[in-house]
């Protein structure tokens, strides 16, 4: 059985490396090509790259696992994400693509902010780059945890070996091919992920042991009246926390950097249509997997020790080894597409916003590409240290990093693109306020328990505090004359 699985996985690995080599030959001659693909992504590649880099291992592990345990009430997260993603494509995508090129051809988010607010450029670049590296180390660790769980659960191997293998494969094509390699592999991986999430629920329901939709609904409703309810057991704070996931989209550097790389602004509507279609199909598949997977487990007396391994367990039980290998590849695709994007954005910030600025003499393009590759490796190794605990939860790590980015960068990006009165001092205030609020909210445990009840997701107070700080400090007008009209 293992032979067929390894054949499918080997074919997948070779495809990823092949894409990396192709991208290396085509688009790594300069830092703009290595970090942004020469701003020449087609709408389809940009859309699926944004989606695949967004929907990490949590889409196939964390979200189905949460639904498996708690039922449809957890699907409010998917609703909030869908709304947030759509607004991100409408508000941020066209403006960011146009303004990052207009403001001195910025290659990174910190670079754009520095060019947009020149009087605070150095501080903005430094603070935002530090925040990016810190939260991406945590975010990358969540992907490595998912890879470790895959190898431990599917093959009975070492968890840490799975973590290192996952990182090693990602490093090969990311270090070699840069942004173009990451974007092209994301496109392929996004197609694989969506196909797997369509196939898996259908097979669960149609196999003889699944019992069909009717029996699945009867089994679930008989188990717990609240399992199939969107509202039962959901408090106001819980609903707000779930919907607030959508706020995170405006501040995710590894997602919005795809907007900067789209070929031209006129391509954004087509990219939005492709990206949102992909996202809706994938989220419906993930929700269906969690719900119908629970029905399958109840019908067949299947014990799932770790709910986040539901996709892995059912892949092994229900499919031919060659297909199982393909499904494992889909999970690896979800993991790797996000990890590679995060590593590259972290590398870009370290290279463009710290190394280049600290150099006393101008760096050559070849030197910057080399430093970028070394930075990818360094951030990956830090993520390995964070991911070393096999009891880590994918969804928990993702939620913390998602909130950190959403609160620190979300209000900052929206207002920088749409509000001409925003100042550099206001930008710094919002950036720091959002990040610190999220960190303190987590440290004080307020995301778990608030006034003796359910905790409020840290992105809510962080996003609000950042927005208020930007507006108040900007209106104070300490450096009002320095901004460039947006």
UniProtKB/TrEMBL annotation:
Pfam families: SSF (PF00474). GO terms for cellular component: plasma membrane. Keywords: Amino-acid transport, Cell inner membrane, Cell membrane, Ion transport, Membrane, Plasmid, Sodium, Sodium transport, Symport, Transmembrane, Transmembrane helix, Transport. It catalyses: L-proline(in) + Na(+)(in) = L-proline(out) + Na(+)(out). The keyword Lyase does not apply. It comes from the Bacteria. It is found in: Cell inner membrane; Cell membrane. The chain crosses the membrane at residues 6-24, 45-69, 75-93, 123-147, 159-180, 187-207, 227-250, 271-292, 326-347, 368-387, 399-419, 426-444, 456-474. InterPro entries: Na/Glc_symporter_sf (IPR038377), Na/Pro_symporter (IPR011851), Na/solute_symporter (IPR001734), Na/solute_symporter_CS (IPR018212), Sodium:Solute_Symporter (IPR050277). It is a multi-pass membrane protein. Signal peptide: none annotated. One of its GO terms (biological process) is proline transport. One of its GO terms (molecular function) is proline:sodium symporter activity. Gene3D superfamilies: Sodium/glucose cotransporter. Catalyzes the sodium-dependent uptake of extracellular L-proline. Belongs to the sodium:solute symporter (SSF) (TC 2.A.21) family. This is Sodium/proline symporter. The lineage of its organism: Bacteria, Pseudomonadati, Pseudomonadota, Alphaproteobacteria, Rhodobacterales.
């Amino acid at each position: 059985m293992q032979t067929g699985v390894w054949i499918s996985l080997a074919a997948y690995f070779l495809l990823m490396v092949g894409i990396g080599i192709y991208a290396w030959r085509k688009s790594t001659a300069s830092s703009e090509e290595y970090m942004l693909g020469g701003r020449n992504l087609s709408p389809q590649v940009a859309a699926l790259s944004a989606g695949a880099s967004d929907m990490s291992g949590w889409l196939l592990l964390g979200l189905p696992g949460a639904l498996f345990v708690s039922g449809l009430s957890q699907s409010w997260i998917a609703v909030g994400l869908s709304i947030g993603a759509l607004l991100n494509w409408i508000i941020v995508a066209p403006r960011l693509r146009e303004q990052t090129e207009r403001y001195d051809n910025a290659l990174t988010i910190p670079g754009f902010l520095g060019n947009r607010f020149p009087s605070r450029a150095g501080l903005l670049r430094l603070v935002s780059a530090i925040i990016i590296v810190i939260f991406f180390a945590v975010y990358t660790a969540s992907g490595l945890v998912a890879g470790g769980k895959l190898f431990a659960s599917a093959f009975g191997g070492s968890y840490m070996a799975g973590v290192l293998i996952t990182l090693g494969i990602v490093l090969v094509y990311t270090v070699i091919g840069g942004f173009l390699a990451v974007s092209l592999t994301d496109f392929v991986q996004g197609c694989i992920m969506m196909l797997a999430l369509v196939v898996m629920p259908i097979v669960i329901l149609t196999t003889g042991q699944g019992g069909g939709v009717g029996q699945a609904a009867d089994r679930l409703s008989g188990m717990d009246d609240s399992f199939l309810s969107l509202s039962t057991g959901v408090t106001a704070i819980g609903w707000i926390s779930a919907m607030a996931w959508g706020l995170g989209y405006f501040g995710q550097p590894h997602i919005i950097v795809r907007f900067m790389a789209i070929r031209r602004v006129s391509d954004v509507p087509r990219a939005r249509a492709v990206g949102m279609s992909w996202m809706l199909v994938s989220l419906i598949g993930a929700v269906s997997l969690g719900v119908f997977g629970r029905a399958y487990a109840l019908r067949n007396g299947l014990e799932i020790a770790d709910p986040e391994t539901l996709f892995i367990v059912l892949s092994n039980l229900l499919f031919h080894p060659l297909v199982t290998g393909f499904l494992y590849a889909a999970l690896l695709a979800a993991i790797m597409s996000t990890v590679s994007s995060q590593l590259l954005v972290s590398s870009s910030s370290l290279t463009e916003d710290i190394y280049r600025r600290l150099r006393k003499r101008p760096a050559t393009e070849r030197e910057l590409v080399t430093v970028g590759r070394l930075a990818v490796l360094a951030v990956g190794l830090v993520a390995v240290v964070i991911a070393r605990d096999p009891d880590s939860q994918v969804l928990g790590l993702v939620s913390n990093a998602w909130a950190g980015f959403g609160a620190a960068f979300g209000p900052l990006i929206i207002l920088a693109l749409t509000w001409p009165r925003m100042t550099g001092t206001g930008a710094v205030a919002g950036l720091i306020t959002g990040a610190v609020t999220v960190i303190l909210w987590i440290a004080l445990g307020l995301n778990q328990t608030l006034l003796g009840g359910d905790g409020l997701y840290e992105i809510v107070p962080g996003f609000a505090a950042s927005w208020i700080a930007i507006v108040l400090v900007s209106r104070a007008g300490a450096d009002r004359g320095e901004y460039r009209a947006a």
